[in-house]
Amino acid sequence: MPTFSFNDILYVSDGRIRRGDIVVEDEYIAKITDKEDISPDELKLQTDGNHQLSAVGILLPGVIDDHVHTREPGLTHKGDLCTESHAAAAGGVTSILDMPNVVPQTTTLETLAERQQNGARHAFVNYAFYFGATNSNAALLPHLDPTTVPAVKLFMGSSTGGMLVDHGDSLEAVFEQSPLIIMTHCEDSDIIAQNMRRAQELYGDDPDVIHHAEIRSREACIRSSQRAAELAQKYRKHLHIAHVTTKDELELAKNDLISLEACVPHLLFTEKDYATLGTRIKCNPAVKTRADRDALRAALLDGRISVIATDHAPHLLAEKEGGCKRAVSGMPMVQFSLIAMLQLVEEGVLPLTRLAELMCHNPARLFGIEGRGFIREGMKADLTLVRRHPWTLTAENVVSRCGWSPLEGRTFSWHVEQTYCNGRLIYNKGRFAEGNAHAQALRFGASPCPAL
Fold this sequence. Notes:
Elements: E1 4-13, E2 16-25, E3 28-37, H1 40-49, H2 52-56, E4 58-61, E5 63-68, H3 81-90, E6 93-98, H4 109-122, E7 126-129, E8 131-132, E9 151-155, H5 168-177, E10 181-185, H6 189-203, H7 212-215, H8 218-235, E11 239-241, E12 258-263, H9 264-268, H10 274-277, H11 290-302, E13 307-309, H12 337-346, H13 352-367, E14 383-392, E15 411-421, E16 424-428, E17 431-432
Parallel strand pairs: 1-4, 5-6, 6-7, 8-9, 9-10, 10-11, 11-12, 12-13
Antiparallel strand pairs: 1-2, 2-3, 4-14, 14-15, 15-16, 16-17
């Protein structure tokens, strides 16, 4: 690959906004020559003026999304590794960690190896695959390669894919045997089942989606997360709770063994949005109250939430028809997570430097991802160039195979102009590079989970 450079560029890394020259050689950031630090107030003035930034843009580390469902294998009518990783690239996401609830499920060493081989063939950005826990496979966990598998995914609540681990002994075995981080989907299935029966008695067999947060309730999330925290404490294992949705769960971050992920839908929407967006925002766990959303936003700032991800879950719109029972849960989000969070920066919800921590630095730190997540000399050149220019999202912008977004009709202040993966320009103003030789399997260091 040729050497190229960004000259006089504003870039964000390590808690600072700086202006400098950045040289990329082959796959790596070879040299950074800093010229000046830019204060948030100065950046705001430049943004409001919309002159310098419109000409220069801002360079960020490539986003690392630790919660993606590409649907390959077995569910590729919704999306696959190729289509969804192209969507990631269009959104400034250069690394994805893919979930195990596909067909067949990634719950054996053989299916894991097959998915890793598929990644090499089809992924357009860097990739890795979780290993899924079941009620009967805990004995396999010590045999996982910690340099190629980011974590064990544990469904402590039933969701898409039928991978619920609900036997007490099986839960204990997963926490006892896992050599890796345990990433949990926490919802109490008994509480959900009781709530569904009650809702069906009141509203019919397929209750309207406005009741989704009543059925997949706050109590269901809180109780399950508390149980997971107890097991993590008992076995002294690092627990990463996926897509927290309630202000109560945020208290679990006080435990040094526990990290929390917030997903973009729960930072944007509230239960009031069901009235206008319907099943397009139906996801598990459910979007909840404004108070919960505001608590999650506050926790982005104080360190209780460590990572922002998407739970990118493409479905066809036809599969989203119905109510709480019939409509499937999940929404595509990986292409628009960065610009949606930049909108929160624009609105003063969080600083740009904190966005980089939550979407780039901390995923790399949490999983011990080697050589990525920062703009530093010697790191892989995974980069995204964003520019401030208002635009309105329509279905024509969507790259995911499913062809829709719950954000259609929204106007955003920022857009992703270019994405670089391992030193190669792979997305440029709507055009993609050919092939996928640039994409690499992620490697994980021997000592993940440093303090975030």
